[in-house]
Amino acid sequence: MLGTSTCAISFGAFKRSTSYTLSAMPKIERIKNRHLLKKKQQRVEIEKIESVIGTTVSLPDGARLEAGILDDGSRVMLLNGEILFFERDGRMLPTLRAVLAGYVSVPRVTVDMGAVRFVVNGADVMRPGVTAVDDGIEEGSVVAVVDERHGKPLAIGVAMFDSETMRQAKSGKVVLSRHHIGDALWEFGKQ
After folding, report:
1. The pTM is what?
2. What's the CA angle centered on 101, arms 97 and 106, to 5 degrees?
């Protein structure tokens, strides 16, 4: 939902009114140009995705992916009606459903429980909330943001730094969030 909201805060004699814009991924109404990929086409697309995320994609034997285009013009790939990969910033990224199903394994950035409520609302990951970082993360790598208590993926993001730099940082953003629980991609799979 896009729109402008007003927030009024009152502290004794002081009153502050702020307007801000809420920008979120619009609800996915439909997927245009949806079609099954031919086997060769599917193999080529999977190879491209593997090169972007730096790991293998393990789909079930005989799985046939569908491709489609969202209203905003970005591409998606589906398996059994669930979006597994989506295009963002010109490259295909896995969805949380692909990670949860075990089709894709990406490095993890673990956040403390205090950061969870921000991450599931689409916030980028800030260094103070990070408790652990997997080895092998490079700048620009696709990562899964997980909570420290259950180890469940909360978001898919892009690392702003390599593993070592992330560990040494004291403040600032370390992961740019690209997809999170509760966004339009997640909600589409629940239909």
Report:
1. 0.81
2. 80
Instruction: List 69's β-bridge partners, or say none.
Output: 32, 75
Contact 84, 119 (CB under 8 A): no
Burial of residue 189 (CB within 10 Å: 0-12, 13-18, 19+) is middle
pLDDT digits (tens, 9 = 90+) for 86-127: 998 889 999 999 999 999 999 999 999 999 999 999 999 999
Give the right CATH number for 32-104 from 1.10.8.60, 3.30.40.10, 3.10.450.120, 3.40.50.300: 3.10.450.120
CATH code, 108-185: 2.30.130.10
Judged against a pLDDT cut of 80, whether residue 175 lies above it is answered with yes
